[in-house]
Here is the input.
Amino acid sequence: SLQITSKPDPTIGDDTLLIAGDKGTPTFTANFNPFNANARKAAAIVYEPLIWINPLDGTLVPWLAESWEQPDPQKIVLTLRSGATWHDGTPLTTGDVDYTFRMLKEHPANDTGGVWSRVDTVETTDSTIEITLLAPDSPALPVIGAMLIVPEHIWADVEDPSTWRNEEPVGSGPFQLGNFTSLQYTLDRYAGYWQADQIDVEHLVYPAASEEMDLVTKGYDWAYAYMSDVENTWMAANPHNRYWFPPGGIIGLHLNHDVAPFDDLDVRRGLSLALDGKQVGEVAAEGYMDEASQSGLLLPNQEDLLNPEIPDRGIIARDADAAIAAFEKAGFQHDGTTLRTADGEPFTFAITTANGYTDWLRAAQEVQRQLRGVGIEATIETPQPAAYEANLTSGDFAVAMGSSNGSDAFQGYSNLLWGEYYAPVGEASQNNRIRYRNDEVDQLIGDYRASVDEDEQARILQQLEKIFYDDLPVIALYYGGLWGLYNDGRFTGWPSAEDPYAPLQTYQSSPLRVLTRVRRVRNGGAS
Amino acid sequence: MSTATHRTTPSTPGAEEPLLRVQDLSVVYEPVGAPATRAVREVSFEVGRGEFVGLVGESGSGKSTLGFALTALSKPPARIESGSILFGDVDIASMSAEELRTQRQGGFAMVLQAGMNTLSPVRTIRKHFHDIFAAHRHVAPGDRDDRAAELVGRVSLGPEVLDRYPFELSGGMRQRVTIALALSLEPQLMVFDEPTTALDVLVQHAVMDTIRELQAQEGFTAILISHDLGVVLESAHRVMVMHDGRVVEDAPSEDILRRPQHEYTRMLLSHFADPRAEHVALPGLEAPVAGTATSAPSASSSPAAGGGLELRVQGVSKSFGAPRRGAQPVLAVDDVSFTLAAGGATALVGQSGSGKSTLAKLITGVEKPTAGTIHVGDAEVGSLRRKELRDLRRSVQMVFQDPYAALNPLSTVEYTLTRALTNLTDLRGNALRKRLHELLETVGLTPAAQFAAKLPHQLSGGQRQRVVIARALAADPQVIIADEPVSMLDVSLRAGVLALLRDLRERTGMSLLYITHDLLSARLITDDILVLHDGRVVESGPTAEVMRHPQDEYTIRLLDAIPDPARVHGARPDRGDLP
Amino acid sequence: MSAMSTALTTTFTASIRTVWGNRKARIGLIILGLFVVLAVLAPLVAPYGPEDNGFERNQGASAAHWLGTTAAGEDVLSQLIFGSRISLLVGFGAGGIATVISVLVGLSWGYVRGWLGDVINFVVNMFLVIPGLPLMIVVATYLSNGGISVIVAVIAITGWAWGARVLRSQTRTLRGRDFVEAARFSGERAPRIVFREILPNMTSLIAGGFFGSATAAILAEAGLEYLGLGDSTVISWGTMIYWAQNSNALLTGQWALLFAPGLCIALLATSLTLINFGIDGISNPRLREGSTGR
Amino acid sequence: MRYMLQRAGWFLLTLWAAITLNFLLPRMMPGSPADAALAKLAQNGPVTEQTRKAVEAQLGVPDGNLLQQYLDYLHQVVTLDFGVSYAFYPEPVTGLVLQALPYTLILVGLVTIAAFVIGTLLGVLAAWKRGTWMDALPAVGGSFLGTFPYFWTALLLLFFLGYVGHLFPTFGAYSATTVPGFSWAFIEDALYHAALPATTMLVTSLGGWIIGMRNAMITTLGEDHVTFAEANGIPGRTVALKYAARNAILPNLTGFGMALGGVVGGSVLVEQVFGYPGIGFLLFNAVTGQDYPLMQAIFLMITVSVLVANLLVDIMYGILDPRTRR
Ligand SMILES: Nc1ncnc2c1ncn2[C@@H]1O[C@H](COP(=O)(O)OP(=O)(O)OP(=O)(O)O)[C@@H](O)[C@H]1O
Ligand SMILES: Nc1ncnc2c1ncn2[C@@H]1O[C@H](COP(=O)(O)OP(=O)(O)OP(=O)(O)O)[C@@H](O)[C@H]1O
Ligand SMILES: [Mg+2]
Ligand SMILES: [Mg+2]
Here is the structure.
């Protein structure tokens, strides 16, 4: 058969890394305002955060802040690194940090991380930033740390920083904007970078053409994409092509707890027992992803957080008989072929998933098939993504495919389960979309927020895991992958399962860390 | 072929070597997905130089097909099956396409049937001429405009028509242009295929005069195809009669007129009469003698009939809004008054566009008059509402002109009549069926059961027209308006339908308004006549009176336009010869 | 009505004969017939169920899987066979609905006079002026929950206006015919005149319009599915291409996955176009096969 | 005069209704612009309440009640200022449209015209040479190609000539290294990039024109005026072109007008496959991104151009058909 092979552009030099980090629609518009949803993706590495957070396991890496402490749950004190400069040579000071906070407060449209929903006051000295929170809120640290810092001496003159396109960005990151055209832009190494000695890549090229077909044929060094049959496509195109797909979240059935009968634990248990997450993952992600743990943790990344009391690391095996038993306990009847509600009607419900999310659709179809095994005939609804968002936010769904949890385990539980975020069906809730209410969970979340003791936090997490496992707020199916693709022919030092220092995301702040570790392959070895 | 007399000597002198020799010619149509038809069968004849030959025969007898073959214009699905056509001494069939094309100048030309459409609608007349001159280069570029002007002059048109588009000319003018274009080829042989059929009586007359004169002047050989024996006899030296693809008679015009050999020719002749004569008759149909215009309904009207109704038209006018922006409104009917007595029969004659059909529409309530009143019995037609109008249809019915167009091709006779009966009468079930059969029998479609099941395409033209009449009779109307009911029929069918109309009137006592441009038929079946010109009544009175002693100049012209072979050949057809 | 039915049967058989007499149309009818047979007998003909996904993924052609397997481990050939059902359903469904609407609107529009005609004209113009595919996309997005019936509805709603216009002008021609006027003299009312007297005389035009709409509908369904705006849960040729594209069928060398459904769409659409050649021949005898001899 | 006024009245009414529909259509879609933006963000990880707030603040939509929005919209239409796009926030809609329009006009416009001209000529030839291979090839071949799904043809061409054959570029309207402008280098590059999309559209749209023209020609060829021209010995070419084709083309003009009017809508499928930065691509993004302002602007443009194209066809009719001239 016709095998497509990669045909790199010969004009791309050894010191230049071709990254599929941004996608033209179909062309690029020059927008490097990092707070803007439509900003060029590279804006996230032109500017830097105070703390770099590893999306794999949530570990915090000092970045513009060289250290921090939380003297009490309502206070954070960060110490700014000295020696960082903006691309125009101006030193980066606590004044810039202070300005960034003020700017976000004045322009809530830019506060995409929701910093000011947690911060009360910010005070700075020459080297420290002292933040007082609105309430005891120890988990605010990663949110505040992830905020990107912008230069006051440039931004202060901007009339409206929320609509400003910032076409010639001046940041503090390792690369500054080079050449920009509507089809491709380049970033060039910034010699004055505070850790310039760690940066071995001279240029980054971001082409607009970054469809799967292009990834395979155009000799990309780094890409992030779900590539069907990766062995025969990406891997076959070039002997140096590699991939690494660690888990990045849990794909599962999000049940609306305000809709009967999903408020009934026995029903949820029945569903969970009726489903084989491994098989769902097999179908949806072509076997690249594992069955998700019902603990809500990303395993193996977060193995050390796992509550040892949870059997089988939270993997619930399919057991049709037990599932039917659970349903019967909830008042359902099974007549050998069909599961019926107490009124004798066949039990049926719709699984909502967004149109175009093909892996979710495959998963939903597999779920549909497996549910037939216990006599449930589910239907699938596929609204467009925007409508899906709207439906879930307003609670207009019964069962939906959804993604939850993530690198920050606590954030995962609190986003999904905290009663604070509860809103009845018909009212908008972006976080607790499953309309879950559990006093015990609320208590635990409160305790966690009020604690700065890592051991206590770990204990609380284990309890939350147990509740997640027992109460089944969502039915975990399989892990959503972080679809990293790279080529080690011209550059090495990429993260991997053995050295998971960062995921291979080409967006957000991940490349900042990866690019400090990647090295050019100097003599020979290039394909 | 047995009865055909082959005459190679034209009746005009000066023929040495024949121009055209046709031998055993057969033409067959082989359409895809339909059975083949042999339209011309083993025809042989010769035509000498300068001869004017007429070709007559009823519709479908193969006249046009023969004409196309003679001028090498046969196209698929037509195919010349056998025989030869020698033009001079070359066989047309042996010519290459390019030879043929060049032959068209100075060779043979054809003026097509339905000449209205033979000009490209998007080219001016001048361009048509130029295309021909350019194609044959027989006129120097500098002389072309003059030559074109001269040619249109020959057909009595002014040079201003050259810059007009075909749609800006009347039908008669278009037909003349077509003839001028054919003339521009300076042909030796010209075939005219029904050059006047689609035209008005008066225009028809004028165009025929032009053709005759041209032929006399230019001396080309002419073959005139027509279904009207009168027209042909008036112009041609020699007549060939076609029937069913064969030439059944071929004789000088006088001989045809006086001593027709073939039965079919005799039949054609028998349908020819002069309405001005004191005594007018067609086979099976005799006109009331002049002066005795009394045709009161006979006492023996059928029991179902309700007798006639009086129709009173008083000062009626109708104007139509401007058809195009900027044009004047058309006054189609202008202050017309007349009364049609109950049980009477009145003819409405006039040339095309004189307002006859419009008047019919006004009477039947299809259109509303702009002025005046129309009474059918006691009802004032103009003021009726839709529902009342439907009721009016029970007493006033219409017989349509074209029996081919007036019947839905997808409906059986039974359906067509049943619908009329259900809508207009209270008959249902068996009574309805009985009435249906009765109707069919009334119009002479027997056995009724057999005809009831037929679709229009399974009927002949005359039979179709009978169905149309039966439908009009369904509700026992008291007034029948017949709008040119026989103009589309061959002569052989015409008399039968006319006789039927007259019999019906006599039997049922209904009133008849007979609209026509054919004065002969008006003479045959009506008592009174109205002559319409430009929407106005120019003459009226008892039919025979008016025909014999027309007063108005327009009526006289109409009468003069009727082809009269006697005018040329100095004799009336000798009726005594007829069986 | 039996008169009508015999009349129609006669004209129908005559039409069939004309269509069948046309070589191109005959080929079209045969292809269409094959597809219909495939669709009806799909469960018997297809080697596997269309959703059986237990096979090895992304396999090439083999004896077990003539056209290979998909990225989800389904048999391509079986999907192709079952997919014909949707294409035929959409084609005939949407084509049929669009035709019915265009007949209803076109005929009434052609028959009425005065302001009502202006209003209909206005509505039809709206549908002609509003961009078709975008409208389809918007409506499809709006109704993205309804499955294939929504697709059918969307295509029908956006596809009837042109036909209505054509039928209207034909109606205008026919309404002036003597037999229509004669029906009025027989006391027929407007609806009956329109639908009993005029309509049957436009059969070939309507049939032609139907096959045209059906072709357009089949292509539109495929286009919507390809853009991901259709119902990706059903198995149709359009969704097969969508999934093939999604799973990089071209990259894995599974080009049959992309090629076969596209070819089937083209073949089905071609068969309808070919049939239309024959139908053109009914309404316009000059178009019947033959040569000019040039 | 009254007639003209009446016509103008209907034209304006149609325009108004279309404009209103263009306003309502996008709003019938479930979900808001913010939902669309968030759905995009959600693909990079769970989105929090705070992000939603920020995005809603950014897009600040939709303003006020429907009536207010409608009035604002009418004002926009009149002033031709469509505000800021949501999907491409904070780009102004007008800029986006103006940027995309030239590519679409040139690609789709030229192809539409070329398809019409070539298809019509082939149709003339097919009818003239009826029953020969010169008839069968374009008639059957053209209609077979015409039944290929657009995107499918596009994908195949892209795959074989682009990715496998490396003969043509696979993305965009020009190469990343060329500077758009009025230079020969750019034009050459742009033509090179347009080759595959143009071929796709040409190949798939030719059939319709061929068949349309062929059928009209065959009908016209049987008309008396053509027979008469032949009878007068006018050469075949002249008869075919000046007599038959000249008349037969008239019924096809309406279709051509519709096609021309559709040009500004671009070709969503083709542009999508080839990553061509035209209106079609923009439109697709607008629809999937719930970008009301952008959708409205594009819809308006399409509506108006269809209306105008029809007007032009009317005028063209007048020139080509003297019967309508009065
Ligand atoms: N294109 C055709 N295909 C098949 N049969 C045809 C065709 N044209 C004519 N015919 C048949 O050939 C026969 C002769 O037709 P032709 O036109 O020569 O008659 P005609 O004498 O000119 O009649 P009319 O007076 O009506 O013009 C008729 O039976 C007719 O049905
Ligand atoms: N609906 C109409 N609108 C405008 N003008 C009309 C209309 N109907 C008839 N006319 C005009 O009225 C005049 C009379 O037409 P009418 O049909 O009554 O003539 P006619 O005597 O029946 O002619 P023919 O013998 O050709 O049937 C003509 O000039 C015609 O153009
Ligand atoms: Mg004839
Ligand atoms: Mg008349």
About this structure: Residues 180 and 197 of chain C are 7 Å apart (CA to CA). The pocket of adenosine-5'-triphosphate (ligand 2) is lined by residues B 320, 323, 330, 332, 350, 352-358, 517 (CB under 6 Å).
